[in-house]
Write a structure and sequence with these properties.
3-stranded mixed sheet; two-stranded parallel ribbon; mainly alpha; 9% strand; 5 strands
Length: 240
């Protein structure tokens, strides 16, 4: 939940919603038509909601890992690259009949292991890795150019839409909704909704600082490269 809400100021017996956290890693190509399954790290590998609803982890729209602090580790990231990223990109290139050439661009986060190319499986050795210099991450890293911020806004939109759907025509309070009608499965569903709703226009705009030519090559109807799509996301959320 957002920090500046009524629920964050309330005290619920044996329930601490504001301390429940997860870490999500997002990745896509420059044209935005290859959204890779995200890596998600939670503090529990088998949440209670999974057991109650007989959820199969291999069927999830994310790759789920767990540790006590819900942090991405180098091991988790390397496994995601080999088992999720590489196969997804290879399938994409084959479907588009493109050459087997991939450049994975990473910032200087500690979870991105140096020498990652050495840990890539032999079947995916066509992939190369580029590490952005530390001072340039916030300026050039495409995910930091509106993608993550727009994802969070869309997540909040769908979260409260779900809340309104559950609580309308009832006497349920917001804290009752949070405690009794919101769980990890619903969270994963909303994450998938938010990720799928990020448009190719947003991705194209996000890459323009690092790769200006990719913006000029895309011919989106009514698209002006200098227009920031973030305002449109805000307007959509407010109207909803």
């Amino acid at each position: 939940m957002p920090q500046r809400t009524f629920i964050s100021a309330e005290k619920l017996p044996d329930h601490k919603p504001m301390k429940d956290r997860l870490t999500l890693a997002l990745c896509t190509n420059a044209s935005g038509d290859c959204k890779v399954k995200p890596l998600l790290v939670y503090h529990s590998e088998n949440p209670r909601a999974f057991k109650m609803n007989k959820i199969l982890k291999e069927k999830l729209q994310v790759m789920l890992h767990a540790n006590g602090k819900a942090w991405v580790t180098r091991q988790f990231f390397t496994e995601w690259v080999n088992l999720i990223f590489d196969p997804a990109v290879k399938k994409y290139l084959q479907g588009k009949k493109l050459p087997m050439k991939v450049l994975l661009i990473l910032d200087n986060a500690p979870v991105h292991p140096p020498g990652l190319e050495n840990d890539i499986l032999d079947a995916f050795k066509f992939m190369k890795v580029l590490y952005l210099p530390p001072p340039t991450t916030t300026i050039l890293q495409p995910m930091d150019q509106q993608v993550i911020s727009n994802f969070k806004k869309l997540y909040t939109k769908h979260l409260f839409h779900h809340c309104f759907e559950v609580t309308k025509n009832t006497n349920l309070t917001l804290r009752e909704f949070w405690k009794e009608h919101y769980n990890f499965i619903i969270c994963l569903h909303i994450i998938d909704l938010a990720w799928q709703r990020i448009t190719r226009r947003t991705f194209c705009s996000a890459w323009k600082k690092l790769w200006p030519d990719v913006v000029a090559e895309r011919d989106f109807i009514g698209f002006e490269p200098n227009i920031e799509p973030e305002s449109e996301v805000l307007e959509e959320i407010v109207e909803s």
